UniProtKB/TrEMBL annotation:
InterPro entries per record: DUF1774_fun (IPR013920)
Entry's transmembrane regions: 109-129, 135-154, 161-181, 193-212, 224-242, 248-270
Lineage: Eukaryota, Fungi, Dikarya, Ascomycota, Pezizomycotina
Keywords noted in UniProt: Membrane, Transmembrane, Transmembrane helix
PANTHER family given in the database record: DUF1774-DOMAIN-CONTAINING PROTEIN (PTHR37992:SF1), EXPRESSED PROTEIN (PTHR37992)
Name of the featured protein: ATP synthase F0
Pfam family, one: DUF1774
Organism: Purpureocillium lilacinum
Entry coiled-coil feature ranges: none
Length: 292
């Protein structure tokens, strides 16, 4: 029981003992593997092209087409993958940080592992509900996971890049999109003009969230991921022969977010380069003054 008491206090400690770190490593790996197993299992259920009876996530993606329908090729690596499973591959970066030789890096990973574990557990539950078309329940799980990851995003703003990408930016960007993707599947008739208009409006939330991530959180990884998701949605709209507004909006969002992300990365590189040059100039000036 003492081990689990240590685990429950990860977020409130400056450092954790060996037993706490061991528990964090074990539960993080178990939750990650469980999430992958559920993803592969659900991704292999039926044909992704059988939109009539299949419980495959991609078949549901096309069967309940909306303004958020994605292209399956861009959203996966092979026919047995779910829309989010490629992001699970990135999460191995977080696992690696738990075994780093840098003790500070390990402690930083341990401090956020409770959110990482909760994300994997909630993802597995969401997917099991989703493939059985329990969209209302799966939406509730997505809301819980979005809150979980948002708290992580607000509380831990200075994480190393490997932890930020794998445990925060990529999962949070996908979960934000999935709230709309799954939510619009609950709408019974997407062919209605009202449903299409609402979809055309809500798709711009991806742009707003991406710009917020860049401006307020300086998180280019999230905006870049949302850019890729937007392009995948745009191609999906071509496949479903969507209306012009539904077709154009995702591509515009994807290009704007992509350009804004590259611009911020370029500005960061310029500031870093200028800072190094300034520091070098100051050092040279100090050396000259000392020698004089």
């Amino acid at each position: 029981m003492g081990h689990f008491g240590d685990f429950g206090l990860f977020c409130h400690r400056e450092s954790n003992g060996l037993s706490g770190v061991t528990v964090a490593k074990t539960l993080s790996i178990v939750s990650w593997l469980a999430s992958i197993i559920v993803s592969v299992y659900c991704g292999s259920r039926g044909s992704p092209h059988d939109t009539e009876q299949s419980q495959n996530p991609w078949a549901l993606n096309y069967a309940h087409s909306s303004s958020f329908t994605m292209n399956s090729t861009l959203g996966r690596h092979d026919a047995n993958e779910t829309p989010r499973s490629s992001l699970l591959n990135w999460q191995v970066l977080f696992i690696v940080q738990l075994f780093s030789r840098d003790s500070d890096r390990v402690q930083q990973a341990v401090h956020v592992c409770i959110y990482f574990i909760a994300n994997n557990v909630l993802h597995a539950i969401f997917l099991l509900l989703f493939v059985h078309s329990f969209f209302w329940l799966s939406e509730a799980v997505l809301v819980l996971n979005f809150i979980n990851l948002s708290v992580l995003h607000f509380r831990h703003k200075a994480l190393p890049l490997q932890i930020q990408l794998s445990a925060v930016s990529f999962p949070l960007s996908w979960t934000f999109f999935a709230l709309y993707w799954n939510g619009f599947m609950m709408v019974p008739n997407q062919s209605l003009v009202a449903a299409r208009v609402v979809g055309c409006v809500f798709i711009w939330a991806l742009l707003g969230y991406g710009i917020l991530s860049l401006g307020a959180f300086k998180d280019p990884a999230m905006s870049l991921c949302l850019s890729f998701i937007s392009i995948a949605v745009g191609v999906g709209q071509i496949e479903r022969l969507a209306s012009t507004p539904e077709l154009v909006a995702p591509f515009v969002i994807g290009m704007v977010l992509g350009f804004a992300t590259l611009l911020q990365l370029h500005m960061c590189w310029l500031r870093s380069t200028f800072g190094r040059k300034s520091a070098k100039s100051e050092n040279l000036a100090e050396e000259k003054s000392v020698s004089a």
